[in-house]
Amino acid sequence: MTSRNARWFSPARPAAIYVILVAGAAITLVPFGLGLLTSFTSARQFNTESPLSLPNPPTLANYTALSDAGFGRAALVTALMTAVILLGQLAFSVTAAYAFARLEFPGRDTLFWLYLATLMVPATVTVVPLYLMMAEAGLRNTFWALVLPFMFGSPYAIFLLREYFRSIPADLIRAARIDGAGTLDVIVHVVLPASRSILVTLGLITVVSQWNSFMWPLVITSGSSWRVLTVATAGLQSQFDAQWTVVLAATTVAIVPLILLFSVLGRHIVRSIVVTGLK
Fold this sequence. Notes:
It is found in: Cell membrane. One of its GO terms (cellular component) is plasma membrane. The chain crosses the membrane at residues 15-37, 74-100, 112-131, 143-165, 186-208, 244-265. This protein is mainly α. It has 15 helices and no strands. It has two domains: 11-48; 70-241 and 257-277, Orthogonal Bundle (MetI-like fold). The longest helix is centred in the C-terminal third of the chain and has 35 residues, at 244-278.
């Protein structure tokens, strides 16, 4: 072993890597921990003591204030919006990706790359045209205005699924065709079971992006009827005169469902990365 390799496998090197990883994890997680502790801290203690002090005593008053402010309805609207967009994204993205991956039709590749090129268009550019379309259709400040622009697939989702579907052995699809399966049967009984991990990954990405959506709900809705979590949290800063204990309670309510979802389904993301790398 050369001296260079000896330095690489030095016992101190793994220790240094772990120190860096722990420091990075601390930088990422400590703010969330402080926010969680603050959400159980009374406004009086927060204003008179150090922000790093533990809640003494812990209180649920901040969460009660959220309930009184109608935050529960915002959480329900956000969950319903995310669920509808997720179902639409999966349904339309799967069918479009399969068409681009396995079906032969004139201009298929050209159409795919033109559609993929829309990824380069910033989302803010389309806000005003989408707003005008929703307003002309009489959908402004409605639930459908929140979901319609995002439920018919996306370039990223279709690209991700297309590349995965192309890696599925063609023999499986040909065997299903020989058995008399139509295109929809092939998708449901062959493609989807073989793509479970990538579908879960896409689902998590969609849920996180829509759960945290702020710009479009802020523009297209007004009042409290169809307000989502992000807009409601921003409104709390003025409604409660910068009572950060209440605001951080709201952010905790918004973050916890995503953490639980990722803790349950995160292994599918790792599996999809491993499978994609092997293929």
